[in-house]
């Protein structure tokens, strides 16, 4: 089976600016930022999307969110605030079939988002 874009980044087959990495997740700068600060964090385990996560993935999902908050803090976003976004399916804006969380900040973010 073909590796996803994020699996290739995690295995260093594709270069990226890595902001954080541990045994479960990798955080990188987004190549096409939608805010002054835009990072992505994804699990090394290739979960296609949140709708396909299982109870077995609960600890991984919790770890992903906690590390997203740490990355946001490291990027200086804690004080002003930031947005975490998970896209699911075509109508949700998903373009890569590997669960990932967008960390957006550095400016006021409008609501509704799209």
Q: How many E strands? A: 5
Low-confidence stretches: none
Rounded mean pLDDT score = 96
CATH class: Alpha Beta
Shape: globular
**What order do the strands of the largest sheet run in, or round the barrel if closed?**
1-2-3-5-4
Number of separate domains = 1
Which class best fits the helix and strand makeup? Answer: alpha+beta
**Gyration radius over CA:** 14 Å
Instruction: Give me the CATH architecture, please.
Output: 2-Layer Sandwich
Major beta sheet summary: 5 strands, antiparallel
- The number of helical segments is 2
Determine the CATH superfamily.
Answer: HIT-like
Q: β content, as a range?
A: 15-25%
**Gap between N and C termini:** 34 Å
Helix content: 10-25%
Structural account:
There is one protein chain. This protein is α+β, with helices and mostly antiparallel strands. The chain has helices at 5-10, 58-74; strands at residues 18-21, 25-29, 37-43, 82-86, 101-105. The protein has a single domain (5-105), classed as HIT family, subunit A. It is 20% helix and 23% strand. The chain has a five-stranded antiparallel sheet, covered by helices on one side.
Task: Summarize, please.
The protein has 114 residues and is of the alpha+beta class.
Question: What attributes does this structure have?
Answer:
114 residues, alpha+beta, HIT family, subunit A, five-stranded antiparallel β-sheet, 2 helices
List the SSEs and their pairings:
Elements: H1 5-10, E1 18-21, E2 25-29, E3 37-43, H2 58-74, E4 82-86, E5 101-105
Antiparallel strand pairs: 1-2, 2-3, 3-5, 4-5
């Amino acid at each position: 089976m073909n590796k996803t874009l994020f699996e290739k980044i995690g295995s260093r087959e594709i270069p990226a600016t890595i902001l954080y990495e541990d045994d479960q997740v990798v955080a990188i700068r987004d190549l096409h930022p939608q805010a002054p600060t835009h990072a992505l964090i994804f699990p090394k385990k290739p979960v296609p999307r949140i709708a396909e996560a299982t109870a077995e993935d609960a600890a991984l999902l919790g770890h992903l969110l906690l590390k997203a908050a740490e990355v946001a803090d490291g990027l200086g976003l804690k004080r002003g605030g930031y947005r975490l976004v998970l896209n699911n399916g075509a109508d949700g804006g998903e373009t890569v079939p590997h669960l990932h969380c967008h960390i957006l900040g550095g400016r006021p973010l409008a609501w509704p988002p799209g």
